[in-house]
Amino acid sequence: MEAKYNVLIMITERDFLRLKSNYHRLVKNMPAQKLIFVGSEEVGKEVEQLNLGERVDFINENDILPFADVNKVIQKALQIEEVPRGVTGWYYQQFLKMQYSFLCEDDYYLVWDGDTIPCKPFDMFWKDGVTPFFDLKREYHEEYFVTLGKLFPGMRKCIEASFISEHMLIRRDIMQSLIADIMKNEQLSGDSFYERIIHCIDPSGLTSNSFSEFETYGTYTCFKYLNSYRLRYWHSFRYAGYFFQPDEITDSDYEWLGKDFDAVSFERGHTVREDHKDIFTKKEYQEKLSARQILEIAQEEFEEGYLEIW
């Protein structure tokens, strides 16, 4: 089915440079009219130089929502003059995805984390061509739902799974309704939806990432727009960066990974340890074992963090 929506790829310059050798796979596998990178002016220059084709475009993040406006709110909330870029950035990229609903000209837009690469083509609508998918994974952070309950009194976690899957197809009118309801909540203070979100988080929790746009939008939709999406489990290899070098992963690696995974992520700070170098990349292993089998073995040594479950 021909996609009738655009995809927003949220990315920093640092991550763009780190992963740009993989971005032709976004063009190849992404079901969207246009692929729009969203970032700083420097990201825009890198997108232009990479020359990924006519389907690829760029929007300066400040044209959606000025970074300085969000940073000022967080400065006030924390009562400090200089907020670490990473603290504001965590919330800022989420608010960008929400604010874009007022710029979007289509019924839907797909938001996609720039450190994640699809292994193969995929669809975001069910076979009827009308009903979109919510892609689910398995994790839980209580702080997200504490904030959610303040934004929308009476709302709570509504499904066992998580809506956090490194991407989400957003219906423009639902996101606009969500923002309008935040602004109607008389218990919240602030002149913008993002100011109200920040103000309802205890300052001690601001630096520990206490809001999720994905969990908030997914839960809100389940409560207010029941049956507007179909639920689907999504398998992405979140820790690919511990086992593959982004600039060395091959077509055959992606083909092999794609038998078990929809996408792989190369999160910042994840590097390949010496004892991890050949676990997934050795062709003899790939011929005898699936990526799922190897990950299930590797996960036995993980002492903490996310575990992929089938």
Secondary structure blueprint with pairings:
Elements: E1 6-10, H1 13-19, H2 24-29, E2 35-39, H3 41-50, E3 56-60, H4 61-64, H5 67-78, H6 85-99, E4 108-113, E5 116-118, E6 133-136, H7 142-151, E7 167-171, H8 172-184, H9 193-199, H10 203-206, H11 213-224, E8 230-233, E9 236-237, H12 251-257, E10 263-265, H13 283-288, H14 291-298
Key words describing this protein structure:
alpha/beta; Spore Coat Polysaccharide Biosynthesis Protein SpsA, Chain A; 2 domains; five-stranded mixed sheet; three-stranded mixed sheet; 14% strand; globular
- What's the story with the biggest beta sheet? 5 strands, mixed
Approximately how much beta-strand content do the residues carry?
Answer: 5-15%
Q: How many helices?
A: 14
Low-confidence blocks of residues: none
Q: Average the pLDDT over all residues and give the rounded result.
A: 94
- Count of individual beta strands: 10
Structural class: alpha/beta
Please provide a brief summary of the model.
This protein has helices spanning 13-19, 24-29, 41-50, 61-64, 67-78, 85-99, 142-151, 172-184, 193-199, 203-206, 213-224, 251-257, 283-288, 291-298, and strands spanning 6-10, 35-39, 56-60, 108-113, 116-118, 133-136, 167-171, 230-233, 236-237, 263-265. The protein is an alpha/beta fold and 310 residues long.
Description:
The protein is α/β, with parallel strands linked by helices. It folds into two domains: 6-233, Spore Coat Polysaccharide Biosynthesis Protein SpsA, Chain A; 236-301, no CATH class. It contains 14 helices and ten strands. It has helices at residues 13-19, 24-29, 41-50, 61-64, 67-78, 85-99, 142-151, 172-184, 193-199, 203-206, 213-224, 251-257, 283-288, 291-298; strands at 6-10, 35-39, 56-60, 108-113, 116-118, 133-136, 167-171, 230-233, 236-237, 263-265. The strands form three sheets. A five-stranded mixed β-sheet has the order 3-2-1-4-7. Strand 9 (236-237), helix 12 and strand 10 form a beta-alpha-beta unit. The longest helix has 15 residues, at 85-99.
